[in-house]
Amino acid sequence: MLAWMRSFGPVQRVGIEATGTYGAGLLRYLQKASVEVLEVTTPDKSDRRKRGKNDDLDAQNAAHAAFTGRRTVPPKSRDGMIEALRVLKACRKTAVAARRVALQMIQNTVVSAPDDLRDQLRKLTRMELIRTLAAWRPDMTDFRNVASAYRITLRSLARRYLELHDEIGDLDSMIGAIFDDLAPDLVAQNCIGHESAAQLLLTAGDNSERLHSEASFAALCGVNPVPASSGKTTRHHLNRGGDRAANSALHIIAIGRLRTEPRTKAYVAKRIAEGHSKLEAIRCVKRYIAREVFSLISQRRREINQHPVAA
Fold this sequence. Notes:
With 311 residues, the protein is mainly alpha-helical. Helices cover 64% and strands 5% of the residues. It has 14 helices and five strands. Helix 5 (81-111) packs antiparallel against helix 8, helix 7 crosses helix 8 and helix 13 (262-273) packs across helix 14.
């Protein structure tokens, strides 16, 4: 494909959709070939309504977007520790969901089990129940019997739960080690936990230098003020764009600080006294937190570039 494009002349830049999924391999190949790559974002909805949608039109729209520089952003490099953090977190998320399903099935199965089994298990705590069931040795050849089938099922679910529990523990250790190398100062801040910090790091990406300022990071997180003035009325409204997961992480941090930090309480009270609503005041707090987070991420990136972390 690259040779075909170069047959028409020098290739200035290439626009790719979905560089984090289906376009990831193509992105890596073109970057190795020293071709400038831009990620094409959401297509123009009005144009799509007029012209319709198919692969040819999507390719043309992506090419026009890359040529004009509209609806494009520099793609994430996805070649550093943040990408490692992303895949580990995705794995952990599915393991947690599967563990929760296994626990729910154990509880539902115990409720409908024969009376003699239910009486043995109903007073046990959760982990006592799990370990008791996992230690059972039912007759695996007697699966046609209802009581034996319940025992086999409960043991299988309990062992599945324990395996997932150990897997989550291993993943937590790996994720914690990445945080120790990648962002120790970030998680040391008030009300910034590992989950919120991880999401903000994933939003920034391995090549956070693609974000030219803290204002661009705030816009990426959807916490920058959007003008909504009319006539003599000057106001701003909520930005519903940006990475909503990062916006949620900033909101969690803001609520935590509002409850525990006197400085944040005083700032929100001042804003409310000026006539702003509480939600508007919290939105301002989220903007300041975005500035703080971007400063910490940029500082740590400079330190890593100067002194690379040893594997």
